[in-house]
């Protein structure tokens, strides 16, 4: 009789903190891991630290020298908005990206220990997929909008619902055209004016320049013009087979010529020609105009399961423009001269995450 051999115990994952020498293997893992997103890339550490001055802990779990999971974290500490450890502020997705439960559990435990040691109000995971902790507090304020692209450009046009397709054709008829910009000047002019009209603080121009510098060819600015006049502009991220128009805005002239509609079509058209197969329209808050705009393009909302472990905090944070307590601030901000708003905005938005 042959006895069964005992099963060897699974190797225990050890957790480390990203250092410059680890960047290449971190990003190699992110490209291969199905659960990872553009916002898990190592470059976000240098962007967040340089642009906002927030300390980062980019954790990785490895077994036998091979990375099996990653968890990028940054601390945002503000007297006004609270003290948090988040994966990842200024990003729509984050949380644990791992190949197995052992690596995921090791990262989760390390993150909770770090949050307790830092004395933060809460630990936040911005999950693209399912929430990890049934006993943590959830917030389902946001949905994302993701859709597969057809290989043929014209089929993507026909896939846009009729009324929205008419808006794109209106932009075409108005003589709009797009170009790739190699700096952020035209983009920042359109974007800052757009968010000012919404009554929200703008990021510093330097932040967008850092994104272009750090992510290189994976970060592109597409600007829409009418003759030589800037109409709208968008900063686009590329990751694996995905295209993500992330920051965008239009000038006052954009509405009359459907500039924003044409802009997103140009992102889609250019992505299709370059063989990208998934269009990620990003997150929007339920019940907002941005939510309706994306649904009108034929995208189905997918809830984002953000989750929070409360430590010193007593409630889930509510730092968003829909909060009634910020309505007076929004009205006042709209009245500020644009140059003054652009000067003051970065000092506020750096703590909003």
From TrEMBL:
<dbReference type="Pfam" id="PF13480">
    <property type="entry name" value="Acetyltransf_6"/>
</dbReference>
<dbReference type="InterPro" id="IPR016181">
    <property type="entry name" value="Acyl_CoA_acyltransferase"/>
</dbReference>
<feature type="domain" description="BioF2-like acetyltransferase">
    <location>
        <begin position="181"/>
        <end position="295"/>
    </location>
</feature>
<dbReference type="InterPro" id="IPR050644">
    <property type="entry name" value="PG_Glycine_Bridge_Synth"/>
</dbReference>
<dbReference type="InterPro" id="IPR038740">
    <property type="entry name" value="BioF2-like_GNAT_dom"/>
</dbReference>
<protein>
    <submittedName>
        <fullName>FemAB family PEP-CTERM system-associated protein</fullName>
    </submittedName>
</protein>
<dbReference type="InterPro" id="IPR017469">
    <property type="entry name" value="PEP-CTERM_FemAB-rel"/>
</dbReference>
């Amino acid at each position: 009789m042959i006895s069964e051999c005992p099963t060897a115990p699974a190797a225990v994952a050890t957790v480390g903190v990203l250092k410059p020498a680890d960047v290449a293997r971190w990003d190699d893992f992110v490209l291969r891991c199905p659960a990872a997103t553009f916002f898990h890339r190592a470059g976000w550490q240098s962007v967040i630290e340089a642009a906002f001055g927030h300390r980062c802990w980019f954790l990785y779990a490895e077994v036998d020298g091979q990375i099996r999971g990653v968890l990028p974290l940054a601390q945002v500490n503000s007297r006004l908005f609270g003290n948090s450890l988040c994966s990842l502020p200024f990003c729509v997705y984050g949380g644990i990206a791992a190949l197995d439960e052992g690596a995921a559990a090791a990262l989760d435990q390390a993150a909770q220990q770090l949050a307790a040691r830092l004395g933060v109000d809460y630990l936040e995971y911005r999950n693209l997929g399912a929430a990890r902790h049934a006993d943590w507090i959830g917030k389902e304020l946001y949905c994302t909008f993701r859709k597969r692209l057809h290989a043929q450009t014209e089929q993507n046009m026909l896939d846009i619902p009729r009324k929205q397709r008419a808006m794109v054709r209106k932009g075409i008829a108005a003589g709009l055209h797009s170009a790739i910009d190699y700096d952020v000047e035209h983009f920042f002019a359109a974007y800052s004016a757009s968010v000012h009209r919404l009554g929200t603080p703008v990021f510093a121009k330097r932040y967008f320049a850092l994104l272009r510098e750090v992510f290189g060819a994976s970060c592109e600015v597409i600007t829409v013009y009418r003759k030589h006049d800037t109409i709208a502009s968008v900063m686009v991220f590329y990751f694996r087979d995905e295209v993500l128009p992330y920051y965008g805005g239009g000038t006052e002239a954009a509405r009359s010529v459907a500039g924003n509609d044409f802009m997103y079509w140009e992102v889609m058209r250019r992505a299709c020609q370059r063989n990208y197969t998934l269009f990620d329209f990003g997150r929007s808050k339920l019940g907002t105009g941005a939510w309706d705009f994306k649904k009108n393009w034929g995208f189905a909302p997918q809830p984002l399961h953000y989750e929070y472990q409360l430590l010193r905090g007593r409630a889930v944070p509510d730092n968003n423009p829909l909060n009634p307590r910020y309505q007076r601030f929004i009205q006042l901000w709209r009245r500020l001269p644009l140059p003054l708003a652009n000067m003051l905005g970065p000092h506020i938005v750096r703590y909003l995450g």
